Amino acid sequence: MSKFLDILGGNILGSVGSILDNLTTSDEERLEAKKAIKEILINAEVKAQEEVTKRWEADMKSDNWLSKNVRPFTLIFLTFILVVLSFLDGNVGSFIMDDAYKPIYQTLLITVYGAYFAGRSIEKIRKK
Fold it and tell me: Residue 56's closest CA among 109, 125, 104, 122?
């Protein structure tokens, strides 16, 4: 399981664990540890965004029509299905959105805005 988490987190857990192992109880050391953990998490997020950007760039450079369009079509399809199902689910007379759909919409919005705006910001910074 730890190997799987290392792959997903880019050894974040190991880095945090080593910092906490060296931690003692003074306030100054705790603040330093918090700062180091934040730095590790920020660097991991930047690296993850860079990898997503690399995948998108590779797809766009491909000569294959499907590789260029599979993500947009998947996004359109899944969004359409989610909207249709959430609007039609039990709504015969009046519209009442089931509470089960609200976290899905929230997660999708956060993901889409994060991928687009954070990803675009990183791309612009890298170009400069």
Answer: 122
Q: Please name the residues in contact with 98: beta carbons below 8 A apart, sequence gap of 6 or more.
A: 86, 89, 90
The domain segmentation of the chain, as residue ranges, is 1-46, 62-128
Structural tokens at position 104: 């899905």
Residues 47-58: pLDDT tens digits?
Answer: 888 888 888 788
Task: Confirm if 13 and 6 have CB atoms less than 8 A apart.
Answer: yes
Answer whether 10's CB lies under 8 Å from 47's CB: yes
Cα 58 from Cα 48, distance rounded (Å):
15
| pTM of the model as a whole | 0.42
